From TrEMBL:
Domain DUF1731: 242-287
Protein name (record): TIGR01777 family oxidoreductase
Pfam families: DUF1731 (PF08338), Epimerase (PF01370)
Family membership: Belongs to the NAD(P)-dependent epimerase/dehydratase family. SDR39U1 subfamily.
Residues annotated as domain NAD-dependent epimerase/dehydratase: 3-206
Length: 291
């Protein structure tokens, strides 16, 4: 299949391109600069795009990092526009060119802070804070690709030592200052990068997967379980909890997200026969540290 991938410059996107090509797909990467290698095509997300003929799927991972900077008004506008604008452009192209499938990134913020409630792919979303409102608008922009099949990736914490939240956490733990956040009772959805890559291939191949798809490991973990497991694997202490005010001093408003509880389960993946390689947080973190 010919697959177009946008927003693939990060620690998920580049391995995804390699994974799809290894599965026999012909992949075109959309880039905003001059192409540097075969298979890349320059685009401007603010302008209409003509997708390659016979495109069978578009995977959209576009979006500025939510934890990369403190949330000034200007940066929040960038977080929003860097998702909504390219998603709208790609959804329009998918609809007008009769492309069968759009796979579009989203996040767990759509569920909000839900305590111990078990959240499936069909659970209601919330509004009322920045990331929740963004997620609703982002997913709405993707759904304008209909009548194409649209799969929404509600991705938990992707685990790999090379990027995402785990990379800076590793430094903190190695320095001996890693600890649970607050009480540690909040649920932390996670998925190994290996299973995330495999899940994208599964979604592309599985016609019945449409709408929100929870990308999370099958055995949920609390923040305390995550912390204890990571500390054990690194042979570092995890004694001192990190209070919310301390995280807020470091990252500002984004600290709110770190203390939310999202007990998300991958019901749609399970229902369609997806087999996780890493089922527990210990397996996921072990793979993240050594793969």
């Amino acid at each position: 299949m010919r697959i177009v991938v946008a927003g693939a410059s990060g620690f998920l996107g580049q391995p995804l391109i390699a994974h799809l090509r290894s599965a026999g797909h012909q992949v075109t990467q959309l880039v905003r600069r001059e192409p540097e290698r075969p298979g890349q095509v320059r685009w401007d997300p603010t302008k209409p795009i003509r997708l390659p003929d016979e495109t069978g799927a578009v995977v959209n991972l576009c979006g500025a990092g939510v934890g990369d900077h403190r949330w000034s008004t200007a940066y929040k506008e960038l977080i929003y526009s860097s998702r909504i604008v390219p998603t709208t452009t790609l959804a329009t192209a998918v609809r007008e060119q009769d492309v069968p499938l759009l796979v579009n990134a989203s996040g767990v913020a759509a569920y909000g802070d839900r305590g111990d409630e078990v959240l499936t792919d069909d659970s209601a979303t919330v509004t009322g804070d920045f990331l929740a409102d963004l997620s609703v608008d982002w997913e709405g922009a993707a759904m304008t690709a209909a009548p194409a099949r649209v799969a929404i990736l509600r991705t938990g914490l992707p685990l790999h030592r090379s990027g995402g939240l785990l990379k800076p956490l590793l430094l903190a733990f190695k320095l001996g200052v890693g600890g649970k956040l607050g009480s540690g009772r909040q649920w932390l959805p996670w998925i190994s990068r290996t299973d995330w890559l495999r899940a994208i291939g599964h979604i592309i191949a599985t016609q019945e997967l449409a709408g929100p798809v929870n990308l999370a490991g099958p055995e949920a973990a609390t923040n305390a379980e995550f912390t204890t497991t990571l500390g054990g694997l690194l042979h570092r202490p995890t004694i001192m909890p990190i209070p919310e005010f301390g995280v807020r001093l470091l990252v500002g408003e984004f600290a709110n997200e770190a203390f939310k509880s999202t007990r998300m389960v991958p019901e749609a993946l399970r229902r369609t026969g997806f087999d996780f390689e890493h089922r527990t947080i210990r397996e996921g973190l072990t793979a993240a540290l050594h793969d």
